């Protein structure tokens, strides 16, 4: 009868919590915990949620009902508490803590008795197959031990309360997100419309050229179509990379490299790239260095180039025929081991309306929507550049007057290095004619779950003598290597696959008994294209990383390197 009464109480509470609104949730949760506590004749009922502090797992009490006991919510005994030695192993293994406090180890006993607890039951809460937290029940009056049946019922109650809390938090997040979305609805709508245009334009070119090539019998015309398809594909990839860069910056996941480079070489490369764009519009391009600076610097050469190239490309784009573009470089501050560099990109182009300067660096806005219609672009470049500058402990500032031009000033901190830190460039094998490659007698295992990707790689390598066998997931690759490790000379490994991903498959292959399993070249061939993805591949035991869409020349060079 006692257990049936508790079950009925849990059922009633379930109906209340499932039907409660966000506005009434806290009160209904408190009332429900109280009803359960009174039904059990307990003095305190509470919910704790797990969280990380550094690399350690802690827990904090997030809700409490107290009857005939002093409330503990918010004090040092219930906020960011490390798990007692036995609690985490037991609770994470889906076991309960159930007993009289005087029988507990000293540390646990002191912590619990400080809260006036005589007997306690703690039931773990698992949400989405993860140990989320726990629900506890205190008797501060007498010694008691809960029965197995009561434990089972209260496990269900803990799961109910945990789900209710998560559902409410998710609803609050959605409400907040909706309000924020509504507040910037027009900007985001304009941004998406512009993004749709930018993406559809190269896709239209790809589809159109493919159709023309399909119907044409003129070889030169087909090759022209294929070249335009390649150009449009590169444009589409650039747009996608901008979006991914922005998402990484927003999520705080952008990482910068820390390598020596020569600033004069960076500027020379920029000049070579921009020169062709400037020449098309009959513009002048002037570069000036002021003062002395270190011949070797340490930082992320690629990201610095990305920022400056974006500003210079914008200057060219928004400056008319015969206009002037300028880039100046100087050291504005020196400290031991590092220097603060100032890059100024100036033009005499269309300029920016003063009341629109503040939105320039927003990822969802451009200076004016007519700008995107007339000049194109996603509008993400300045947002990305600002994020990169911030990662380099710097910033971007802008001065502009409509009709008279703009002046963007980028400041970044870079460490100073020495000539001996520069890596001596290794001479890459020359790629004179791809047809000269011959991989006859060699066999590769292609691990890829997407049929079209398997077809692309196979078609790319047809004619070079390399025999290709297929595994549709990591598990199949592991089994093939275990059955005949000497059969394969090379493995192409996708990363995201069903059954077993490429990381795990590589680790298991490397753990094989044969020498070939430990030594066979494994090349990641994946759409996971960021530097951290390549690093993770190497850590998993792969030898190299090729990003999709696949650069055919790089693919051949990589195969040649290992075969």
Automatic annotation (TrEMBL):
EC number: 2.7.13.3
Keyword Nucleotide-binding belongs to the record: yes
One Gene Ontology term of the molecular function aspect: ATP binding
Alphabetical list of Gene3D superfamilies matching this protein: 1.10.287.130, 3.30.450.40, 3.40.50.2300, Histidine kinase-like ATPase, C-terminal domain
InterPro entries tied to this protein: CheY-like_superfamily, GAF, GAF-like_dom_sf, HATPase_C_sf, HATPase_dom, His_kinase_dom, HisK_dim/P_dom, HisK_dim/P_sf
Domain Response regulatory: 443-563
Modified sites of kind 4-aspartylphosphate: 494
Entry keywords, A to Z: ATP-binding, Kinase, Nucleotide-binding, Phosphoprotein, Transferase, Two-component regulatory system
SUPFAM superfamilies linked to this entry: ATPase domain of HSP90 chaperone/DNA topoisomerase II/histidine kinase (SSF55874), CheY-like (SSF52172), GAF domain-like (SSF55781), Homodimeric domain of signal transducing histidine kinase (SSF47384)
Coiled coil: none
Uppermost EC category: transferase
SMART domains: GAF, HATPase_c, HisKA, REC
Function as written in the Swiss-Prot or TrEMBL entry: May play the central regulatory role in sporulation. It may be an element of the effector pathway responsible for the activation of sporulation genes in response to nutritional stress. Spo0A may act in concert with spo0H (a sigma factor) to control the expression of some genes that are critical to the sporulation process.
Protein name as catalogued: Stage 0 sporulation protein A homolog
Source organism of the structure: Ohessyouella blattaphilus
């Amino acid at each position: 009868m006692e257990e049936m009464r508790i079950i009925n109480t849990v059922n009633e509470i379930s109906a209340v919590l499932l039907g409660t609104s966000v506005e009434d949730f806290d009160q209904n949760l408190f009332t429900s915990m109280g009803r359960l506590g009174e039904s059990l004749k307990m003095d305190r009922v509470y919910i704790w949620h797990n969280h990380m502090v550094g690399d350690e797992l802690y827990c904090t009490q997030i809700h409490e009902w107290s009857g005939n006991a002093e409330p503990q919510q918010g004090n040092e005994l219930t906020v960011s508490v490390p798990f007692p030695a036995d609690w985490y192993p037991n609770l994470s293994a889906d076991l309960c803590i159930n007993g009289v406090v005087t029988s507990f180890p000293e540390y646990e006993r002191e912590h619990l008795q400080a809260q006036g607890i005589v007997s306690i039951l703690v039931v773990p809460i698992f949400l989405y197959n993860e140990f989320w937290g726990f629900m506890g029940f205190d008797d501060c009056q007498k010694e008691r031990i809960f029965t197995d049946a009561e434990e089972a019922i209260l496990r269900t109650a803990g799961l109910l309360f945990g789900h209710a809390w998560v559902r409410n938090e998710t609803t609050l997040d959605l409400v907040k997100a909706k309000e924020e979305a509504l507040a910037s609805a027009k900007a985001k709508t304009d941004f998406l419309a512009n993004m749709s245009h930018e993406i559809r334009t190269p896709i239209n070119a790809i589809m159109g050229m493919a159709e023309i090539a399909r119907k044409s019998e003129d070889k030169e015309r087909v090759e022209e179509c294929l070249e335009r398809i390649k150009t449009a594909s590169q444009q589409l990839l650039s747009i996608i990379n901008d979006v991914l860069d922005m998402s990484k910056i927003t999520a705080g996941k952008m990482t910068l490299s820390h390598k020596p480079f020569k600033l004069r070489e960076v500027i020379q490369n920029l000049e070579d790239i921009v020169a062709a764009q400037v020449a098309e519009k009959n513009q002048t391009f002037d570069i000036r260095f002021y003062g002395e600076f270190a011949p070797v610097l340490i930082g992320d050469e690629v990201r610095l180039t990305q920022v400056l190239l974006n500003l210079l490309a914008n200057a060219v784009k928004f400056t008319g025929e015969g206009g002037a573009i300028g880039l100046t470089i100087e050291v504005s501050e020196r400290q031991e081991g590092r220097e603060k560099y100032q890059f100024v990109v100036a033009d005499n182009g269309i300029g920016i309306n003063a009341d629109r300067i503040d939105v320039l660096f927003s990822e969802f806005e451009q200076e004016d929507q007519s700008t995107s219609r007339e000049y194109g672009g996603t509008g993400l470049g300045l947002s990305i550049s600002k994020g990169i500058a911030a990662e380099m402990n710097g910033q971007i500032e802008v001065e502009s007057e409509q009709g008279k031009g703009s002046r963007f000033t980028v400041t970044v901190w870079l460490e100073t290095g020495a000539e001996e830190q520069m890596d001596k460039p290794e001479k890459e094998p020359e790629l004179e004619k791809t047809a000269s490659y011959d991989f006859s007698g060699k066999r590769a295992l292609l691990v890829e779950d997407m049929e079209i990707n398997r077809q692309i790689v196979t078609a790319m390598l047809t004619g070079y003598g390399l025999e290709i066998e297929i595994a549709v997931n990591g598990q199949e690759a592991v089994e093939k290597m275990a059955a005949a490790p000497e059969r394969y000379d090379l493995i192409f490994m996708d990363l995201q696959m069903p059954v077993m991903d490429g990381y795990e498959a590589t680790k298991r292959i490397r753990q094989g008994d044969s020498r070939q399993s430990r030594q066979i070249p494994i090349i990641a061939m994946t759409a996971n294209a960021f530097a951290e993805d390549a690093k993770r591949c190497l850590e998993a035991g792969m030898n190299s990383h090729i990003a999709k869409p696949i650069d055919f020349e790089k693919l051949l060079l990589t195969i040649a390197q290992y075969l």
